[in-house]
Design goal:
GO terms for molecular function: intramolecular phosphotransferase activity; magnesium ion binding. Keywords: Isomerase, Magnesium, Metal-binding, Phosphoprotein. InterPro entries: A-D-PHexomutase_a/b/a-I, A-D-PHexomutase_a/b/a-I/II/III, A-D-PHexomutase_a/b/a-II, A-D-PHexomutase_a/b/a-III, A-D-PHexomutase_C, A-D-PHexomutase_C_sf, A-D-PHexomutase_CS, Alpha-D-phosphohexomutase_SF. Pfam families: PGM_PMM_I (PF02878), PGM_PMM_II (PF02879), PGM_PMM_III (PF02880), PGM_PMM_IV (PF00408). The protein is an alpha/beta fold. It has four domains: 147 residues, Alpha-D-Glucose-1,6-Bisphosphate, Chain A, domain 3; 99 residues, Alpha-D-Glucose-1,6-Bisphosphate, subunit A, domain 3 (Alpha-D-Glucose-1,6-Bisphosphate, Chain A, domain 3); 89 residues, Alpha-D-Glucose-1,6-Bisphosphate, subunit A, domain 3 (Alpha-D-Glucose-1,6-Bisphosphate, Chain A, domain 3), CATH 3.40.120.10; 88 residues, Alpha-D-phosphohexomutase, C-terminal domain (TATA-Binding Protein, 2-Layer Sandwich), CATH 3.30.310.50. The protein is built from 14 helices and 22 strands. The strands form four sheets. Strands 1, 2, 3, 4, 5, 6 and 7 form a seven-stranded mixed beta sheet that branches. Strands 17, 18, 19, 20, 21 and 22 form a six-stranded antiparallel beta sheet that branches. The protein has a five-stranded mixed beta sheet with strand order 9-8-10-11-12, sandwiched between helices. Helix 6 links the parallel strand 8 and strand 9. Helix 1 crosses helix 2, helix 1 crosses helix 4 and helix 13 crosses helix 14. The longest helix has 19 residues. The relative contact order is 0.10.
């Protein structure tokens, strides 16, 4: 049993026991083992499975691994890990593929699958190809094996070697009861840091707050603890720890594109003229700053797999998304690892002795909104974007420029607006920015007058 809508643009995700069930997990395992064989022609395929803290994850993994095994695959069960640790396994163990069982930042009743072929996360057409293999039902038959494998020691050694001992700074981490709690204390300790950690115990019910650190209300406890302890910053992780959220030493939330600006400035010091990839939700301020520093800014579609692939294609050392997916390909592997990104931030703060506001000095001030997510339906989210396009696509105003790369991004003389349909939920995403308060209100009202008609 499954609803076709769970096969999304860059992962498979839905409400467990409503949009998919355990039999689906078993059939997906058989389909994935067959899909990897079709792609590699290897009889002796080696695959890994990691899972997050959700209550349904262990049962799903049992069925998923059984399905993989029955195609003749050698299956390594990594246990409760972050998505980045699962990605790491494909590099460290040189695997043919991997599946991370995770609902990411969705509510507790969700679960899903982030799928890697070799060292690359599949998306778009390849997700649909996997679905087609599953629906055809012509699965490979074989006698594989299942074994538990603890990859954490290798992961820790890898980053101990990279960072050495970071100069001790006071930092607070918020795991949000997600998978980050399985690794961050050890990871930060081996690199010389002794962080204070909130909600470290993985608990898929998320009893303290929703595990999305890019929403300000989920950072309240983190901001409070940072101010209480005099920490230089606070770092939050989402449910599977591939997305990061940050507050500065005053407890103020730092937007994803502001964090990317700090990283871009650091990377461009050693990689002159480098390409840096951002998504359509990122501020013009960031793109202009990259260009000012003689980097080459590239705006791309939203989606962790899409940005990851673009970084690889462009051979960019760094990129990211407004939503907190941050990708380093200069010293790391080019995938999104939030605890690693947190270490890079700590390294910059320790090295420079600067606060986050000081690291952002010189960036033009702006009036903007965060990424605003409006709950709607799968149908309406698409309709509304089309209606906004109808209004602005044929504008006669010379100051209005339209970008249809992903949804619609409209540039005005004094700011910009974005309206796009989420790829993971029945949600409409909007964001607005201007160089004045009045401009922000005008731009926001202009777009929302269309949006509100169809909600």
């Amino acid at each position: 049993m499954f609803s076709p809508v769970i096969f999304r643009e860059y992962d498979i995700r839905g409400v467990f026991n409503e949009q998919f069930d355990l039999d689906f997990a078993y059939q997906l395992g058989r389909a994935f083992g067959t899909y990897v064989f079709n792609k590699t022609n290897k009889q002796n395929r080696r695959l890994s499975i990691g899972y997050d803290a959700r209550q349904s994850s262990v049962a799903i993994v049992e069925k998923l691994s059984q399905g993989m095994k029955e195609t003749g695959a050698e299956v390594y069960i990594l246990g409760l890990v972050t998505t980045p640790v699962c990605y790491y396994s494909t590099f460290q163990l040189d695997l043919d593929g991997a599946i991370m069982v995770t609902g990411s930042h969705n509510p507790p009743e969700y679960n899903g699958f982030k799928v890697s072929l070799g060292k690359t996360t599949i998306f778009g057409e390849e997700i649909q190809n996997l679905k087609a293999v599953m629906q055809a039902g012509n699965f490979l038959n074989g006698e594989g094996s299942i074994k538990n494998y603890d990859i954490h020691p290798e992961y820790l050694e890898r980053y101990k070697k990279e960072f050495g001992q970071i100069k001790p700074i006071k930092v607070v981490l918020d795991c949000g009861n997600g998978a980050a709690g399985s690794i961050v204390r050890s990871l930060y300790n081996v690199t010389g840091l002794q962080p204070e950690i909130l909600f470290e115990e993985p608990d898929g019910r998320f009893p303290n707050h929703h595990p999305d650190p890019t929403v300000e209300k989920n950072l309240v406890d983190l901001a409070k603890k940072v101010k209480e302890t005099g920490a230089v910053c606070g770092i939050g992780f989402d449910g599977d720890a591939d997305r990061i959220g940050v507050v500065d030493h005053t407890g103020k939330m730092i937007y994803g594109d502001e964090l990317m600006t700090i990283f871009a400035r650091d990377v461009l010091q050693t990689q002159k003229g480098a390409k840096i990839v951002g998504d359509v939700k990122c501020s013009d301020r960031m793109y202009h700053e990259i260009a000012r520093l003689e980097g080459e800014p590239i705006m791309w579609k939203t989606g962790h797999s899409l940005v990851k692939e673009k970084i690889k294609v462009e051979k960019a050392p760094f990129g990211g998304e407004m939503s907190g997916h941050i990708f380093f390909a200069d010293r790391n592997y080019g995938y999104d690892d939030a605890p690693y990104a947190g270490l890079r931030l700590c390294e910059i703060i320790a090295k420079t002795g600067k606060t986050i506001p000081e690291l952002l000095a010189g960036l033009p001030s702006a009036y903007n909104t965060p990424e605003v997510r409006i709950d709607t339906t799968e149908e309406k989210k698409v309709l509304i974007v089309e209606k906004v396009k109808e209004k602005f696509q044929n504008s006669q105003d010379a100051d209005v420029k339209v970008n249809l790369l992903d949804g619609i991004r409209i540039s005005f003389a004094d700011g910009w607006a974005l309206c796009r349909a989420s790829n993971t939920q029945p949600v409409l995403v909007v964001r607005f920015e201007s160089n004045s308060e009045a401009g922000l209100k005008r731009i926001e009202d202009n777009i929302m007058s269309v949006v509100n008609q169809y909600l």
